[in-house]
Amino acid sequence: MQTPQIVQPIKSIDELASFCKRAGFVFPSFEIYGGMAGFYDYGPRGVELKNNIKAQWWKSIVQDREDVVGIDAVTVNHPKVWEASGHVASFTDPLVDCKNCKSRFRADTLAKDILDADVAGSDLKTVTELLKKTNVRCPKCKGELTEARKYNLMFKTHVGPIESDENVAYLRPETAQLIYLNFKLVQDSARLKLPFGIAQIGRAYRNEIAPRDFLFRVREFEQMEMQYFIKPGAQSEQSSAAPRTKGASENKKFFEQWKKERMNWYLSLGIKKENLRFREHKKNELSHYAKAAADIEYNFPWGWGEIEGIHDRGDWDLSQHSKVSGKDLSYFDDEKKARFVPHVIEVSAGVDRAFLAFMCDAYKTEKERIVLKLNPKLAPIKAAVFPLVRNDKRIVKSAGNVFNELKKKFAVFYDASGNIGKSYRRQDEIGTPFCITVDFDSLKKKDVTVRDRDTMKQKRVKIKELTGYLEKQLR
Ligand code: ATP
Q1: 309 lines ligand 1 (CB under 6 A)
Q2: Is residue 138 domain-shared with residue 279, that is, in the same domain?
């Protein structure tokens, strides 16, 4: 029996990117036309993993709870949405140009990468002065840099056949605003009482200045977001006439509760504790809408990076949309006979960054194999079925029967190549937790070998007990 050898974790994000391409997880978009920075397509294995991540999130946030419902809204958006939310004015990054080669960079990223300085929340003047004072030059040609200026990240388009200012629309840079717009309709139709949440998974678009680190910073991605509407708390600053609750702030209570829930979700799906941490935002780096914010960060091969944000958004969004649209988006509390604008605790995770974190955590190189130690719930394929040889009709037929039975319940794969060693390796690489082989003994004993991906140990399981066995392992 083999024992696992020295295990090497992932060395660089480039190593993962080339593995993802080779193994059918993720491909650079538009490759035959030379590609386009910040866009990736998911291949046959990747789409399954991505769907499983989204399904696990939806299950834990919507289906396992009684207080959260879901929606699915459009991605081409009315401009008023993003004017009201503050994104037209404030959804910006500081941009500098190289006066010589005309390359563009995020000024805050240059400060971090070159000076190891955190300038989050600093104004443009401060950032410009810092780069000048420390003589930061263009990383590509050493040319002189311009002053930092604001650059809006939203993609603009036009709706209808005329490209005029009246027809401007934006591709949404986050899914959250669509939840606020539907708040009243959802609350009325689903007859919800506070506290309750509205969740959504969908695409978001940001015209990032410098896409980087594979799937980490891309221009089209997916978010899993949930806005949890609560009664405003006693100690929060409020613009509304909300009923005041006694004791600790409701905002703080739910903020902490959701931080814990979300951290546990990553842990429950197998990410190692030492690779996850919280990072609380300083007051001066809070987004325009936030009263408090914490990131969940993952320890990527290049260092810690945000995979999810948890935000106390107060009543900013509903109040803004009420003000700009002239429509009442307040809530009437039957018991207290009071009307007020609810506050919101938001959990906002990126599907692609979660994908990257799960892959980085699972990817291991052992002496004889690459293995993806993904949680079985996330694995693209749950079990692979092989006939030991391909030239024995009885074995091939029996393996086919096992496959047909299992595929009723699980994502399974059939491989009749008859080269078991190679087949195991291929399945290890894509994270398949169980490999099932039908051999000569199977014909007499009506059982199969089930090989475990991580331990590489095999055991015999009766064919009629296989479905139950896998169900138990995947629970
Ligand atoms: P960053 O500071 O890294 O740009 P952010 O604070 O702007 O991220 P949020 O607006 O809080 O991010 O978005 C919520 C989540 O959406 C992030 O935690 C991340 O997982 C995902 N996300 C945001 N921007 C991108 C992007 N360009 N590519 C991939 N995922 C992204």
Answers
A1: yes
A2: no
Contact criterion met (CB below 8 Å) for 244 and 235: no
Residues 473, 45: Cα–Cα separation, whole Å: 21
- pLDDT for 177-208, tens place per residue? 999 999 999 999 999 999 999 999 999 999 99
Instruction: Find the CATH number of the domain harbouring 359.
Output: 3.30.930.10
Q: Which of 127, 145, 163 is the last residue of a domain?
A: 145
Q: Which of 353, 355, 356, 360 to mutate to test the pocket of ligand 1 (most atoms within 8 A of CB)?
A: 353
Q: Which residues contact 216 (CB under 8 A, 6 or more apart)?
A: 13, 300, 305, 352, 353, 356
**Edge-to-edge strand ranges of the sheet holding 363-365:** 8-9, 363-365, 370-372
The domain boundary residue, chosen from 363, 393, 417:
363
Is residue 44 domain-shared with residue 179, that is, in the same domain?
Answer: yes
- Please indicate whether residue 226, judged by its CB atom, sits closer than 6 Å to ligand 1: no
| In a domain? residue 156 | no
User: Is there a single domain that holds both residue 411 and residue 300?
Assistant: no
The answer to whether residue 88 is domain-embedded is no
Whether residue 353 has its Cβ less than 6 Å from ligand 1: yes
H-assigned helices in 269-392: 316-325, 351-362
Count of positions (residues) in the chain: 475
157 domain-assigned: no
pTM across the whole model: 0.92
Q: Is residue 106 part of a domain?
A: yes
* % of the chain at pLDDT higher than 90: 87
pLDDT for res 5: 61
- Give, using CA atoms, the residue closest to atom 1 of ligand 1: 306
Nearest CA-CA partner of 467 in 413, 408, 389: 408
Say yes or no: 293 and 207 in one domain: yes
User: Cα(61) to centroid of ligand 1, in Å?
Assistant: 19
Q: Is the pLDDT of residue 150 over 60?
A: yes
Pocket test for ligand 1, best of 208, 220, 306 (most atoms within 8 A of CB): 306
Q: Is the predicted pLDDT of residue 70 greater than 70, yes or no?
A: yes
Q: Is residue 234 within 8 Å of 244, Cβ to Cβ?
A: yes
pLDDT band at 289 (very low <50, low <70, confident <90, very high): confident
Count of domains in the chain?
3
Residue owning the nearest CA to atom 2 of ligand 1: 306
Q: Is 349 in the pocket of ligand 1 (CB under 6 A)?
A: yes
Instruction: State the burial class of residue 176 (Cβ atoms within 10 Å of its Cβ: 0-12, 13-18, 19+).
Output: buried
Domain that holds residue 102: 94-145
349 CA → ligand 1 middle, Å: 8
Strand, helix or coil at 79? helix
